[in-house]
Design brief:
The chain is α/β, with parallel strands linked by helices. The chain folds into four domains: about 1-120, DnaJ domain (Helix Hairpins), CATH 1.10.287.110; about 240-345, Glutaredoxin; about 355-490, Glutaredoxin; about 575-760, Glutaredoxin, CATH 3.40.30. The strands form four sheets. Strands 15-17-16-18-19-20 form a six-stranded mixed β-sheet, with helices on both faces. Strands 5-7-6-8-9 form a five-stranded mixed β-sheet. It is elongated, with a radius of gyration of 45 Å. Mean pLDDT is about 80; it is low at about 1-5, about 10-25, about 95-125, about 570-580, about 695-720 and about 720-730. This is Dnaj subfamily c member 16. It comes from Holotrichia oblita (Chafer beetle).
Length: about 775
């Protein structure tokens, strides 16, 4: 029964530890002063009331800041239904449990051995409880792991209970965690049965499975899981391309003088020809602030007096003649390396080129005694401002202020226009270029600022006065009783180092391809390639068929063009201009279909021409009718006046008031006439270039007033065109100009404003 007593003793210890953790977290209901049955509306009201009461700017209580943070965290927990439910059931939040796991990771693995004895609690190397201690949830993955992966690589191991391969992989994963964690790589696990959605999201197809998380991207490891060397090589290959540049004596100056990208330069010297993993991980962590170069040149070693059997790291800022920091050891620990770099990760005069740099150099602060000022010189990207920046850099290096109180920087106005313009006071125009603005950030968007009166001068006679005024202003504003003159709300800075659209698209495409490949097993690769090959084959065949069809169409067009060239004198070839708009010839056999048997609402637009004018009139007629080609109620035709002269004469006589009146038709004067024939209602409208219809009120020219006195039906008698009338008219029109006004007449025709000539019947068309 001894083991039972030990079991209950262990249970009591674990239970007491959980109660202690719960006590440290605090009760969110008590923090907000609510009951456990409080609704979401009551939670929001309590949160707003307490935020106003405990805001650090509204109270002088020294505990206001910590109290404000507690209120915010309590509200975030209770406003999330899932987290609130888990807290009500288990009494602990997932984020706090993850933090406890992070702390427990560095504790002795056999914490209860001293209490209960080594024999009963001796965990074996392949004990699966090793995975349980490092397990994370989906929420922790999204909220903690993914954001952290932008600076820290993560190995994620997927396992499940009662999995014999997972049990076999335990000692190898333990060795992997012990090897990579000192270099800054985190190792976590996921219980796939408890988090199945996360496994599906990351394309986990078999268990156990090891994946690498870099900058939010997932890479699945497919090789044998028992080889530590292959896993490390997999990590090295997946790190960003050219994370560390190779530097020799030919490009050392170019590398060190490239600080215009706002990055510190770091030179890494090793006795080995291959850079070690610890330096790659450090370069990944500081890749936004520091540019790393790997040196193997003996000439450069001699220049900086580097020992050949030691690891050395040199850091350079704008002054490339000597390093600002260096470290030399046999094996440089990653923590020491990161501490040295983090302390020197900014240039002597950094540029505010992104929101991250602004947050690091000028952090948000609540209390005035802790006020930190940022002195910013506004310049442009022009090289003419380089002397001003250099003089300001020299002053910043020799300024009598600690880095915790005052930070100096410069900004490009033409790249951060919105941010700089928001700092110009209303009603007081300020020319920002070469002016110095002193800012103090209250929060992420609220800034207090003050402009220095004079511009930054380079002349020796004015530089002393300028620096003296600047020092007086800084000393005055550093006092807690002094307040900055202006305040403004600003947006985030534009990231000058961000990739362009093409670069982002290319990176996204490469990531998708890699993710697609990594998410497939060996059994899935062959079917996927088969599907891809089928798609490529279908596209190629479709392209080939389209190409052959295009060749066939071109061949047919050439044949038709040849036939049309041989048949230019054939009247039937008039419809070759545009096959999309079919123009029929009015003959006796087509007369019923084009005129007499037209359905209600349908009309035929008829052009009157002769053999000599066919080539000149059909193209403009076709062009004028082209916009109406999709109208299914219209048909288009032409008539040779020599063939239908008798029909045309009888049609005009039927439209006159006196049916016994006889017309003398001149065929040449009829060429260019256009008729709109409504076969069902038995009327037609008429167009001729030389005798246009007048408006009903007769307004316009003097000639219009005279013609308005005549009835419309009688005015149409001009279509008879006896020889005397044509000779008396001095205006001469060429055949190519007869249809110039046809488009306007067609518009009026479909508007219903043209005159209609009604007849009793349609005359017969001659059978010639």
């Amino acid at each position: 029964m001894k083991w039972k007593s030990q079991f209950w003793l262990a249970f009591i210890v674990i239970f007491c530890t959980a109660l202690e953790v719960l006590a440290e977290l605090g009760d969110p209901y008590k923090i907000l002063g609510l009951k456990r049955s409080a609704s979401q509306t009551e939670i929001r009201k309590a949160y707003k009331r307490l935020v106003k009461e405990w805001h650090p700017d509204k109270t002088k209580d020294p505990t206001a800041e910590s109290r404000f943070v507690e209120i915010k965290q309590a509200y975030e927990l209770l406003s999330d239904p899932d987290r609130r439910l888990k807290y009500d059931q288990k009494g602990i939040t997932e984020d706090d449990f993850y933090l406890k796991q992070e702390y427990a990771r560095y504790q002795p693995p056999h914490a209860f051995e001293d209490i209960f004895g080594y024999a009963h609690f001796n965990f074996q190397e392949n004990d699966i409880t090793f995975f349980h201690r490092l397990a994370i949830t989906t929420r922790q993955f999204d909220k903690i792991i993914v954001p952290k992966s932008t600076r820290v690589p993560h190995f994620i191991f997927f396992y499940t209970d009662w999995c014999f391969p997972c049990l076999q992989a335990a000692p190898y994963m333990r060795k992997l965690a012990d090897y990579v964690e000192p270099f800054g790589v985190n190792f976590v696990t996921v219980h796939n049965s408890n988090e199945p959605n996360l496994g599906r999201r990351l394309n986990i197809h078999t268990l156990p499975c090891l994946v690498l998380l870099l900058d939010g991207n997932i890479y699945v490891y497919k090789e044998t899981i028992t080889s530590l060397q292959k896993i490390i090589e997999f990590l090295r290959k997946k790190l960003p391309y050219r994370l560390v540049s190779n530097v020799d004596e030919y490009d050392i100056d170019e590398f060190l003088n490239g600080w215009e990208d706002n990055k510190v330069r770091a030179l890494i010297f090793e006795p080995r020809s291959v850079i070690r993993l610890r330096y790659l991980i450090t370069a990944y962590h500081f890749r936004d602030r520091v540019a790393f170069g790997f040196v193997q040149s003996e000439e450069i070693r001699n220049k900086y007096q580097i020992a050949s059997d030691m690891d050395t790291v040199l850091l350079f800022n704008e002054n490339t003649t000597r390093p600002i920091a260096s470290i030399t050891m046999k094996d440089i620990p990653s923590t020491t390396l990161q501490h040295i770099i983090s302390s020197n990760q900014y240039l002597a005069l950094p540029r505010l080129s992104s929101q991250g740099i602004l947050d690091s150099l000028c952090p948000c602060e609540w209390n005035k005694p802790r006020k930190r000022l940022c002195v910013v010189l506004v310049t442009s990207t022009s090289s003419n401002h380089n002397p001003h920046r250099e003089a300001f850099r020299v002053y910043a290096q020799n300024a009598p202020y600690s880095i915790d109180k005052v930070r100096f920087a410069y900004i490009y106005h033409d790249k951060q226009v919105e941010f700089v313009n928001s700092l110009i006071p209303e009603g007081q125009p300020v020319e920002p270029l070469l002016r110095i603005v002193i800012i103090w950030r209250r929060d992420t968007s609220h800034i207090k600022y003050e402009w220095v009166e004079d511009k930054w001068q380079l002349e020796e006679t004015n530089i002393n006065d300028t620096t003296q005024k600047l020092e007086n202003t800084i000393s005055r504003l550093l006092r807690s009783s002094e307040a900055l003159t202006y305040e403004a709300f600003v947006k985030d800075l534009f990231d000058e180092h961000a990739k362009g659209i093409i670069g982002r698209m290319f990176t996204k495409a490469v990531t998708l391809v890699n993710g697609f490949y990594d998410g497939m097993s060996k059994d899935q690769i062959l079917p996927a390639l088969s599907i891809l090959g089928t798609i490529v084959f279908i596209i190629a065949v479709g392209y080939l068929m389209a190409y052959l069809v295009r060749l066939e169409e071109e061949s047919i067009k050439k044949q038709q063009k040849g036939k049309n060239g041989n048949n230019n004198n054939n009247p039937n070839s008039a419809n070759v201009y545009q096959p999309e708009l079919k123009i029929h010839e009015l003959r006796a056999e087509k007369y019923h279909g084009l005129v007499r048997l037209l359905k209600p609402g349908c009309r035929t637009i008829l052009l009157v021409l002769d053999m000599q004018s066919r080539q000149q009139l059909i193209p403009p007629f076709h062009k004028a009718c082209w916009p109406y080609r999709k109208n299914k109620t219209l048909m288009f035709a032409y008539m040779y006046v020599e063939r239908g002269l008798s029909w045309y004469k009888e049609l005009l006589e039927l439209s006159l008031p006196d049916p016994n009146q006889n017309l003398n038709i001149n065929p040449r004067n009829c060429v260019g006439t256009v008729l709109s024939l409504n076969g069902h209602r038995k009327y037609f409208c008429m167009f001729h270039a030389k005798h246009r219809e007048q408006t009903k009120n007769g307004k316009g020219t003097k000639q219009g007033k005279i013609r308005s006195e005549v009835k419309d039906c009688e005015a149409a008698a001009f279509i008879g065109f006896d020889s005397s009338s044509s000779e008396s008219d001095q205006e001469v029109l060429l055949e190519g100009d007869l249809l110039d006004g046809l488009p306007n007449w067609l518009d009026r025709l479909f508007e219903g404003t043209t005159h209609r000539f009604h007849i009793n019947y349609w005359p017969d068309f001659p059978n010639k």
